[in-house]
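Duplicate of #3305? Posting structure anyway:
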């Protein structure tokens, strides 16, 4: 296969442009234009004679973060990964090229250009925000493009553009439309879109992206000529070795031009020419990578597994294991992906990709599974096993502190989910980081109370109070007493918490419930009504209305009870309890037909609701 000796230099130029995009990003949305560069960089990396697994994986990882970023600090992660690839790429350049880089840097300094990277240009975007409906249409169009339903995506982008005139992010839709045109081979249309952006956004980053894409379209057109020449050589080739080499080169040219169906066939043909050749393994790997890029995840996984079976210890097998883990992640099987990345790091600990695999495992635990405890463990293992790597250093300085800072919040989420033993471990982990966190003590006390450790939970809750008595620690003390069935003391502490913060929704609600238990129904009604008046979100209002209906019911106020149960049903039509209670009120009011309607709905929602089944049978006997 013929390799372009200037490919490295062009790839470095694209990397520098990508880093400029990252450097000027002000929010995660600003990173979306990275895909235009990273797609090309990935193809270039794959086309290297001696493909570097770590660089390919690092670029893929960067692309995934840029596309899926959930918080602003992930911009740092993309920058770190790209700088690592750039460093490796630049290190491979001949000495005379590195000397030229240094000289060029000096010249840039003379003219105030700021050294290696020029200063990022402003966004220069003005206009309105897109509406929710427009954003949804945009997301749907992008989803079609990701699935490679390119004509569908183009039609969606074209339909959306007239609707978002005056929107400041209209240029993003234009860039995606131009990119889709280019993928379809409609180069004149693509060029027209990019030139329009370039003229309208002079001096901005969007102009830089449009410039890069205009050059990219020219590359696509040049590839068309290259493909014609290769097809002519293939038809004339007699030797299997020549044929295999030509098919590989043709497949890569098609891949670069995003003609993925054709590339898949070329790589498949290359692998079939001489199946026992080392180059056939490479062809299979390219075939699998093309399938994956094309969104054909199951087919790609089957080819990667075939490579592993054929040559279990080869570089391509190691890369295939990494790719299989990434396929699990893309398919939404995050647990399996995190485990696969971790196992790869252990099994091939001497390979360059091992530290990245361990880092990737922690990243999946944190960002995909929302589990900072296991993420922290993974980053700690990275530090222990690969301490001399840049990834370990970055993990220690950047990832680990941030991940650990979220453990306490995660512990409270675990309590809400009823995972009390997991919550206990999370609170204990958080307390190791900050032994003076009084809310952690209160949270741990709550977890212990649910686990049945009555005295330990009371001791911890009291310790939290002594460290810092605020509305939360006082309320938590009340909650621990409530879990331990000491309702009178629970009421006392809830009332104390409300003296400090009178608009504390959860405390008002809990106090309302305990007032009901104590038979103090008018006071319970007041607390529930306060919750409904101050809670900004309607989440959980259905349950409040159910309890409010109870409180009215026990006072004999059946009309008020019915109104509140109706409101609960309206907010949560699938609440069997709300519908059952409403049916009970209808029975008291002698509205048997309405009661039967509600009871039948209850049994649709919960066929095992015995009281509803019994009540319905009794009503039907009254006919």
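Output from current build:
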């Amino acid at each position: 296969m013929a390799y372009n000796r200037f490919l490295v230099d062009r790839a470095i130029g694209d990397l520098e442009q990508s880093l400029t995009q990252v450097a000027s990003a002000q929010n995660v949305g600003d990173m979306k234009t990275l895909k235009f560069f990273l797609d090309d960089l990935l193809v270039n990396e794959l086309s290297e004679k001696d493909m570097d697994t770590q660089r390919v994986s690092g670029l893929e990882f960067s692309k995934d973060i840029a596309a899926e970023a959930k918080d602003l600090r992930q911009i740092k992660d993309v920058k770190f990964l790209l700088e690592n690839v750039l460093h490796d790429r630049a290190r491979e350049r001949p000495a005379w090229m590195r000397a030229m880089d240094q000289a060029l840097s000096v010249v840039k300094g003379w003219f105030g250009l700021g050294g290696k990277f020029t200063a990022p240009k402003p966004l220069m975007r003005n206009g309105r925000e897109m509406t929710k409906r427009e954003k949804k249409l945009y997301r749907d169009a992008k989803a079609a493009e990701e699935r490679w339903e390119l004509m569908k995506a183009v039609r969606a982008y074209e339909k959306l553009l007239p609707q978002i005139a005056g929107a400041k992010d209209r240029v993003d839709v234009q860039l995606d439309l131009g990119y889709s045109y280019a993928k379809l081979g409609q180069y004149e249309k693509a060029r027209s879109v990019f030139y329009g952006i370039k003229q309208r956004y002079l001096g901005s980053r969007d102009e830089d992206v449009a410039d890069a894409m205009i050059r990219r379209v020219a590359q696509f057109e040049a590839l068309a000529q290259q493909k014609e020449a290769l097809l002519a050589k293939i038809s004339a080739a007699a030797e299997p070795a020549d044929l295999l080499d030509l098919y590989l080169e043709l497949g890569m040219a098609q891949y670069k031009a995003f003609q993925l169906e054709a590339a898949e066939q070329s790589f498949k043909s290359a692998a079939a020419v001489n199946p026992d050749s080392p180059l056939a393994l490479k062809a299979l790997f390219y075939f699998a990578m093309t399938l994956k890029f094309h969104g054909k995840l199951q087919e790609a996984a089957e080819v990667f597994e075939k490579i592993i079976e054929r040559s279990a210890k080869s570089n391509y097998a190691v890369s295939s294991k990494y790719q299989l883990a990434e396929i699990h992640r893309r398919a939404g099987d995050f647990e399996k992906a995190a485990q696969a990345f971790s196992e790869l790091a252990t099994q091939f600990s001497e390979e360059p990709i091992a530290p990245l695999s361990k880092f990737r495992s922690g990243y999946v635990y944190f960002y995909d599974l929302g589990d900072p405890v296991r993420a922290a463990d993974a980053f700690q293992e990275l530090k222990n096993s690969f301490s001399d790597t840049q990834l370990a250093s970055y993990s220690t300085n950047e990832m680990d502190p941030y991940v650990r800072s979220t453990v306490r919040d995660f512990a409270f989420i675990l309590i809400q989910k009823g995972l009390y033993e997991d919550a206990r471990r999370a609170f204990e982990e958080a307390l190791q980081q900050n032994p003076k966190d009084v809310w952690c003590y209160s949270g741990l006390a709550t977890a212990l109370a649910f686990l049945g450790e009555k005295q330990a939970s009371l001791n911890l809750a009291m310790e939290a109070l002594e460290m810092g008595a605020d509305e939360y620690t006082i309320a938590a003390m009340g909650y621990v007493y409530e879990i331990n069935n000491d309702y009178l003391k629970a009421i006392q502490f809830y009332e104390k918490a409300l003296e400090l913060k009178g608009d504390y929704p959860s405390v008002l609600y809990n106090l309302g419930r305990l007032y009901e238990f104590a038979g103090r129904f008018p006071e319970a009604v007041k607390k529930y009504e306060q919750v409904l008046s101050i809670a900004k979100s309607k989440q959980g209002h259905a349950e409040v209305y159910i309890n409010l209906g109870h409180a009215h019911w026990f006072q004999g106020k059946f009309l008020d009870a019915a109104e509140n149960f109706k409101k609960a049903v309206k907010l949560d039509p699938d609440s069997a309890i709300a519908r059952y209670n409403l049916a009970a009120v209808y029975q008291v009011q002698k509205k048997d037909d309405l009661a039967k309607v509600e009871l039948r709905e209850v049994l649709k929602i919960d066929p095992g609701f015995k009281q509803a089944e019994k009540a319905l049978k009794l009503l039907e006997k009254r006919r």
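Confirmed duplicate; merging threads. DSSP finds 32 helices and no strands in the chain. The CA atoms of residues 267 and 283 lie 5 Å apart.
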